[in-house]
Amino acid sequence: MSDVPDRPGRVRGSTRSVGVLGWPVEHSLSPAIHNAAFVALGLDWVYVPLPVTPAELPAALRGLGALGFAGANVTMPHKTRTAELIEDLSEDARLLRAANTIVVGAEGLVGHNSDAVGFERFLRDDVGFDASDRSALLFGAGGGARACALAAARCGLATLSVAVREAPRADDLRAALEGSATEVRVVGFGDASGFEVDLIVNATPIGAHGEELPLPPLPPGVVGVDLLYRPG
Questions:
Q1: What is the dihedral of CA 70, 40, 118, 165, to 10 degrees?
Q2: Which residue of 26, 48, 100, 109 is most buried, as measured by CB atoms within 10 A?
Q3: pLDDT tens string 82-93
Q4: For the whole model, what pTM was predicted?
Protein backbone atom coordinates (compact mmCIF):
# COMPACT_ATOMS: atom_id res chain seq x y z
CA MET A 1 0.00 0.00 0.00
CA SER A 2 2.95 2.33 0.47
CA ASP A 3 3.32 2.49 -3.34
CA VAL A 4 -0.20 3.87 -3.81
CA PRO A 5 0.17 7.52 -4.88
CA ASP A 6 -1.30 10.17 -2.63
CA ARG A 7 -4.27 12.11 -3.95
CA PRO A 8 -6.57 14.90 -2.73
CA GLY A 9 -9.31 13.55 -0.49
CA ARG A 10 -7.51 10.29 0.26
CA VAL A 11 -8.22 9.03 3.80
CA ARG A 12 -5.11 7.93 5.69
CA GLY A 13 -4.31 6.91 9.24
CA SER A 14 -3.38 10.52 9.99
CA THR A 15 -6.66 11.93 8.66
CA ARG A 16 -8.70 13.96 11.17
CA SER A 17 -12.41 13.13 11.24
CA VAL A 18 -15.42 15.40 11.66
CA GLY A 19 -19.05 14.99 10.65
CA VAL A 20 -22.67 16.03 11.00
CA LEU A 21 -25.12 14.51 13.48
CA GLY A 22 -28.75 14.39 12.35
CA TRP A 23 -31.81 12.23 11.75
CA PRO A 24 -32.27 11.85 8.89
CA VAL A 25 -28.98 13.17 7.55
CA GLU A 26 -28.56 11.68 4.07
CA HIS A 27 -29.98 14.88 2.53
CA SER A 28 -27.26 17.07 4.06
CA LEU A 29 -24.91 18.91 1.72
CA SER A 30 -22.41 19.48 4.54
CA PRO A 31 -20.14 16.53 3.65
CA ALA A 32 -19.79 17.70 0.05
CA ILE A 33 -19.19 21.31 1.10
CA HIS A 34 -16.66 20.57 3.83
CA ASN A 35 -14.75 17.87 1.97
CA ALA A 36 -14.36 20.19 -1.02
CA ALA A 37 -13.06 22.88 1.33
CA PHE A 38 -10.58 20.49 2.94
CA VAL A 39 -9.18 19.53 -0.46
CA ALA A 40 -8.97 23.18 -1.55
CA LEU A 41 -7.11 24.09 1.64
CA GLY A 42 -4.84 21.06 1.53
CA LEU A 43 -6.09 19.78 4.89
CA ASP A 44 -5.81 16.12 5.85
CA TRP A 45 -9.40 16.00 7.13
CA VAL A 46 -12.58 14.13 6.21
CA TYR A 47 -16.23 15.03 6.90
CA VAL A 48 -18.84 12.27 7.13
CA PRO A 49 -22.59 12.01 7.73
CA LEU A 50 -23.48 10.59 11.14
CA PRO A 51 -27.09 9.32 11.17
CA VAL A 52 -28.14 9.26 14.83
CA THR A 53 -31.66 8.66 16.14
CA PRO A 54 -32.87 10.87 19.01
CA ALA A 55 -32.64 7.92 21.40
CA GLU A 56 -29.00 7.31 20.44
CA LEU A 57 -27.85 10.94 20.71
CA PRO A 58 -26.38 10.73 24.26
CA ALA A 59 -24.30 7.68 23.34
CA ALA A 60 -23.22 9.27 20.06
CA LEU A 61 -21.97 12.41 21.82
CA ARG A 62 -20.04 10.34 24.35
CA GLY A 63 -18.47 8.36 21.52
CA LEU A 64 -17.11 11.30 19.51
CA GLY A 65 -13.94 11.61 21.55
CA ALA A 66 -13.45 7.86 21.86
CA LEU A 67 -13.61 7.51 18.08
CA GLY A 68 -11.04 10.24 17.59
CA PHE A 69 -13.38 12.84 16.10
CA ALA A 70 -12.13 16.43 16.30
CA GLY A 71 -15.70 17.69 16.37
CA ALA A 72 -19.06 17.63 14.65
CA ASN A 73 -21.88 19.76 13.39
CA VAL A 74 -25.45 19.19 14.58
CA THR A 75 -28.59 19.47 12.50
CA MET A 76 -32.31 18.68 12.91
CA PRO A 77 -33.65 17.43 15.24
CA HIS A 78 -30.71 17.39 17.68
CA LYS A 79 -29.68 21.02 18.27
CA THR A 80 -31.74 21.63 21.41
CA ARG A 81 -31.07 18.23 22.98
CA THR A 82 -27.34 18.57 22.28
CA ALA A 83 -27.25 21.82 24.24
CA GLU A 84 -28.97 20.04 27.12
CA LEU A 85 -26.43 17.21 27.10
CA ILE A 86 -23.26 19.31 26.83
CA GLU A 87 -22.27 21.19 29.96
CA ASP A 88 -19.68 23.54 28.42
CA LEU A 89 -21.53 25.91 26.06
CA SER A 90 -20.64 29.17 24.32
CA GLU A 91 -22.68 32.28 25.13
CA ASP A 92 -24.95 31.99 22.08
CA ALA A 93 -25.44 28.24 22.50
CA ARG A 94 -26.51 28.79 26.09
CA LEU A 95 -28.76 31.74 25.22
CA LEU A 96 -30.45 29.88 22.37
CA ARG A 97 -30.48 26.53 24.17
CA ALA A 98 -29.21 25.02 20.93
CA ALA A 99 -25.82 23.85 19.69
CA ASN A 100 -24.95 23.34 16.03
CA THR A 101 -21.19 22.83 16.43
CA ILE A 102 -19.24 20.58 18.81
CA VAL A 103 -15.52 20.80 19.47
CA VAL A 104 -13.87 17.78 21.08
CA GLY A 105 -11.13 18.92 23.46
CA ALA A 106 -8.92 17.45 26.13
CA GLU A 107 -11.49 18.38 28.79
CA GLY A 108 -14.48 17.04 26.87
CA LEU A 109 -17.07 18.53 24.54
CA VAL A 110 -17.70 22.23 23.97
CA GLY A 111 -20.94 23.29 22.28
CA HIS A 112 -21.18 26.35 20.06
CA ASN A 113 -23.88 28.03 17.98
CA SER A 114 -22.87 29.75 14.75
CA ASP A 115 -26.41 29.94 13.34
CA ALA A 116 -27.25 33.39 14.71
CA VAL A 117 -24.00 34.95 13.51
CA GLY A 118 -24.35 33.24 10.14
CA PHE A 119 -27.95 34.35 9.61
CA GLU A 120 -27.15 37.92 10.66
CA ARG A 121 -24.30 38.01 8.13
CA PHE A 122 -26.59 36.51 5.48
CA LEU A 123 -29.25 39.19 5.97
CA ARG A 124 -26.77 42.03 6.04
CA ASP A 125 -24.17 41.03 3.44
CA ASP A 126 -25.83 38.56 1.08
CA VAL A 127 -29.39 39.88 0.94
CA GLY A 128 -28.78 43.51 1.87
CA PHE A 129 -31.85 43.44 4.11
CA ASP A 130 -32.06 46.28 6.63
CA ALA A 131 -34.18 44.90 9.48
CA SER A 132 -34.41 48.22 11.33
CA ASP A 133 -38.03 49.08 12.16
CA ARG A 134 -39.35 46.27 9.95
CA SER A 135 -41.46 43.17 10.58
CA ALA A 136 -40.95 39.45 10.08
CA LEU A 137 -42.91 36.20 10.14
CA LEU A 138 -41.06 33.13 11.39
CA PHE A 139 -42.42 29.61 10.98
CA GLY A 140 -41.21 27.39 13.81
CA ALA A 141 -39.52 27.92 17.17
CA GLY A 142 -36.83 25.22 17.28
CA GLY A 143 -33.08 25.71 17.49
CA GLY A 144 -32.70 27.09 13.96
CA ALA A 145 -35.72 29.35 14.35
CA ARG A 146 -34.41 30.78 17.62
CA ALA A 147 -31.09 31.61 15.96
CA CYS A 148 -32.85 33.41 13.09
CA ALA A 149 -34.98 35.33 15.57
CA LEU A 150 -31.96 36.42 17.61
CA ALA A 151 -30.09 37.49 14.47
CA ALA A 152 -33.02 39.57 13.24
CA ALA A 153 -33.44 41.15 16.67
CA ARG A 154 -29.76 42.07 16.77
CA CYS A 155 -30.26 43.73 13.36
CA GLY A 156 -32.99 45.95 14.81
CA LEU A 157 -36.17 44.13 13.80
CA ALA A 158 -39.23 45.89 15.22
CA THR A 159 -41.82 43.09 15.22
CA LEU A 160 -41.53 39.31 14.99
CA SER A 161 -44.56 37.06 14.55
CA VAL A 162 -43.77 33.43 15.38
CA ALA A 163 -46.10 30.85 13.87
CA VAL A 164 -46.27 27.60 15.85
CA ARG A 165 -48.81 24.83 16.29
CA GLU A 166 -48.74 25.13 20.08
CA ALA A 167 -47.96 28.43 21.83
CA PRO A 168 -45.69 26.96 24.58
CA ARG A 169 -43.23 25.86 21.90
CA ALA A 170 -42.21 29.51 21.53
CA ASP A 171 -41.29 29.98 25.23
CA ASP A 172 -37.55 29.40 24.64
CA LEU A 173 -37.59 31.81 21.71
CA ARG A 174 -39.21 34.51 23.84
CA ALA A 175 -36.57 33.92 26.50
CA ALA A 176 -33.74 34.24 23.96
CA LEU A 177 -35.05 37.64 22.84
CA GLU A 178 -35.78 38.91 26.33
CA GLY A 179 -34.25 42.35 26.75
CA SER A 180 -34.20 43.11 23.02
CA ALA A 181 -36.29 45.88 21.45
CA THR A 182 -38.08 43.40 19.17
CA GLU A 183 -41.75 42.77 19.93
CA VAL A 184 -42.52 39.05 19.77
CA ARG A 185 -46.00 37.83 18.89
CA VAL A 186 -46.89 34.14 18.96
CA VAL A 187 -49.57 33.12 16.47
CA GLY A 188 -51.12 29.89 15.26
CA PHE A 189 -50.26 28.41 11.89
CA GLY A 190 -53.77 29.09 10.69
CA ASP A 191 -53.42 32.81 11.37
CA ALA A 192 -50.06 33.29 9.65
CA SER A 193 -51.52 34.04 6.23
CA GLY A 194 -53.15 37.21 7.53
CA PHE A 195 -49.92 39.12 8.21
CA GLU A 196 -48.19 41.70 6.03
CA VAL A 197 -44.47 41.53 6.75
CA ASP A 198 -41.11 42.43 5.21
CA LEU A 199 -39.32 39.13 5.94
CA ILE A 200 -40.59 35.53 5.98
CA VAL A 201 -38.49 32.65 7.29
CA ASN A 202 -39.37 28.96 7.23
CA ALA A 203 -37.46 27.17 10.01
CA THR A 204 -39.61 24.03 9.99
CA PRO A 205 -39.39 20.75 8.02
CA ILE A 206 -42.62 21.75 6.22
CA GLY A 207 -42.02 21.70 2.49
CA ALA A 208 -39.53 18.84 2.43
CA HIS A 209 -42.21 16.57 0.95
CA GLY A 210 -44.12 19.18 -1.05
CA GLU A 211 -46.27 20.56 1.75
CA GLU A 212 -47.29 24.23 1.53
CA LEU A 213 -46.96 26.83 4.25
CA PRO A 214 -49.88 29.22 4.97
CA LEU A 215 -48.01 32.16 3.48
CA PRO A 216 -49.28 35.75 3.66
CA PRO A 217 -49.42 37.97 0.54
CA LEU A 218 -46.03 38.42 -1.12
CA PRO A 219 -45.83 41.92 -2.60
CA PRO A 220 -42.62 43.12 -4.28
CA GLY A 221 -39.78 43.65 -1.84
CA VAL A 222 -40.65 40.88 0.61
CA VAL A 223 -37.64 38.71 1.49
CA GLY A 224 -38.36 34.99 1.79
CA VAL A 225 -35.90 32.53 3.35
CA ASP A 226 -36.36 28.76 3.49
CA LEU A 227 -33.87 26.92 5.70
CA LEU A 228 -34.66 23.75 3.75
CA TYR A 229 -32.53 23.34 0.65
CA ARG A 230 -34.29 20.25 -0.64
CA PRO A 231 -36.39 20.21 -2.71
CA GLY A 232 -34.84 23.18 -4.55
A1: -70
A2: 100
A3: 999 999 999 999
A4: 0.88
